[in-house]
Each structure stands twice: as C-alpha cells, then as structure tokens.
Amino acid sequence: MITRRPLPSVAGMDTEEAAATATDASPVASARGFYGCTIALIAFFTLIALGAHALAEFEKGLDGDGQLEQPGLSGSVSQPLGPGTTARYEDGLRVTVSRPERHDDGTYGTTVTFKNGTGDQLRLDDEAFSGALDVRPGESGQDYAPGDHVRWLNWKEVASALAPPIPEGEERTVPVRLKPERKGAPVTLEVTPPHPGYRETAYFQLTLG
Question: At 104, is the pLDDT very low, low, confident or very high (cuts 50, 70, 90)?
C-alpha cells in the first residue's frame, strides 16, 4: 500500500511566505530606523549650533563692534597681551605690538601696527577720540611703579605718524622709542583706537631688557 503525504494547503503556503517576507523586511526596517535617528540627531545638533551662533551675534550687537574678540588672553587690563601678539576687534581692526629691541644707547624700540579692516577709513588722531596710544611704566593695572620710570622719547613723532587717516584694507606701522631707568623694567602699551561708539582698550605688557 502506497501512502502519500497530503499536499500543503494554499493557506499554509501563504502563511509561510508572509513569515519569510516579514523576516526579510525586518533588516530594511531597522536600517531605515537607524538612518532616520541619525538624520534627526544631525538636525538637532545643527539647530543647537545655529542657536549658539545667533546668540553670539546678538550679544555682539548689544556690546557694539568695538569689543575685543580674542582667543586666549583677552587683552584686558587683567589679562594683557604680550609682545609679538595681535589685538583683534569685532569690527575687523587689528593692532599688533612687536617685540622690543635694545639699541646701543640703552634705548628700546618697538612698533605698533594698525591694520584697518573696519570697512571704512580709520582716523587715529580725531580730537574727539584722543589717546589712541599711550605708554605707562610698570605692569598692566599697576598704579605706581617705583624705580620703573620709562621715558617715551618720540611721542610727538608717533602723533604725527598717526595723523593721516588709514584707508580701508591698509595698515600703518609706527615706531615707539623708550628709555627705561633700568634693564628689565616692565612697561604697558595701552591702545584705544577711535570708534564712534565705544572702543575697548587693548593692553600690551612688555619687558625692556
């Protein structure tokens, strides 16, 4: 007697095919979910970055563009910049003070370079904005520096050199000659370029010798 197995029913075949299809589709669904989460995270962090940038620009608008915008030391009276560094202002102005060099007569020379990136000509001798450059003996913020007197020998020449306006995109370098009472005396250069609103002073602390 020959025994035959019953033929599979159509319903059984459909169930098996559906299960196989579901099994095959699950990796695709997982991949889609992964990519969807990734895109959502990217969009989230992009929104955070845009919000931080907008907040920074808003704060700049409140402060005005005469503020210092420095990496590292701020250039303030409590965090003066050193020789060979540059003070960067939000409006595009750059001020660089070179390292002092000793001369045979005991004097020291340094230079102050103004690079005008403000979008307009820069007048450093405007009577309404006096005090674009000043020299003070001692460390930054020090009210009195006994024994550290420093003579600024060429302040008149510096004033004359700063008189003509600096066109946009150009720079001007002025030499500063100093004579300290002793070798190793600290001196602070205070730079406050003119601004129609408010310009933050940049402090540079040097050692003569």
Answer: very high
